[in-house]
Amino acid sequence: MPKLIRVTTIPLALHTLLKGQMRYMKDNGFEVIMVSADGKEREEVVRNEGCPHVIIPMTRKITPFADLKSLWKLYRFFKKEKPDIVHSHTPKAGLLSMIAAKMAGVKIRIHTIAGLRFMTSKGFTRKLLVQMEKLTASSATHVWPNSYSLLQYVTDNKLAQIAKLKVIGHGSSNGIDVRRFSTNALQPAKLEEIKKELKYDESLTYLLSVGRIVKDKGIDELLKAFQQLQQQFPATRLVLLGSFEEDLDPVSDEAKKILQQHPAIIHINWSDAVEYYMHLASVLVHPSYREGFPNVLLQAGSMGCPICCSIIEGNVDIVTHNETGLLFKKMDADDLFQKLEWAMQNPGKMKGFAAELEKKVKQYFDRQFVQHALKEEYVGLLNA
Fold this sequence. Notes:
The chain is α/β, with parallel strands linked by helices. It contains 16 helices and twelve strands. It is globular and about 60 Å long.
């Protein structure tokens, strides 16, 4: 039975980004071990996946001394376990586990790129992050960007040898559960509960944004555009579904003030029931500066929720402008306003775009399809 070790920086990534993937591999003939730092999701991950989890401390920030300790622990762990495959996800886990696996003599070392932090960094930090990505790629035997546009970006910026690069299936790290993200799966009682939370009014139009409240998710531009939009369409509300993160990439003070004081903005710290909000929304707005292959767009697509998103890697693999949604220039509040204004004036066309995207998502990004493609890739590498 081949041994597979999946490594992420924190257990939240195993819980959300890779949910069900480890159990699928276990059910299809792999011995699977999960590795990450400790976190509140750890016990639930072990329960959901049915695979053991080993805690090796890792930080998301640049912490040289702590990173060296983590590297040594990973090396010793890989030497002891002798896995056939080490597959990492998330930047810090990728850097440390690919180096450690190479030192330990692991033959198949895979790193999935699901977004690049340096895209939104400047100066010395950017240079350092670029070098870290290159070191990760040079230590890996296979580098899998999770979208074709990201593959192109990695190639153009010479982050990895072309021979190591591949997109699995049509992209995405794990696909989505299209049976869950379906209007047919919604529970009436839960829907009523969400409506009460929103003080839902059928005469209003709800825009939705899902994700962390941080600068590089485009929150500043979204709030600026919404202020302008709401003056023109007073019956519009903006629902922000996501938690504040003050430490890594905080939004501007002006954005915080708008969010806290604007009467038409509803902030909900977080909810696992995102599909219910998507069902109630007229448009999902995703103004992010960088992505790998955003699950939130796949989820909204599967729910038949119209999308307006930024022109960046990952987003453009899912949404085609004026065919399956609307695209606007990243970091451009004026262009975002214009696209949202058009969406408000053309709800029928937006619904038509959403119907086209729903077909695409269900054909190519069902979780079972993506996990099967990944398993076949593992088997091919083992046989080779």
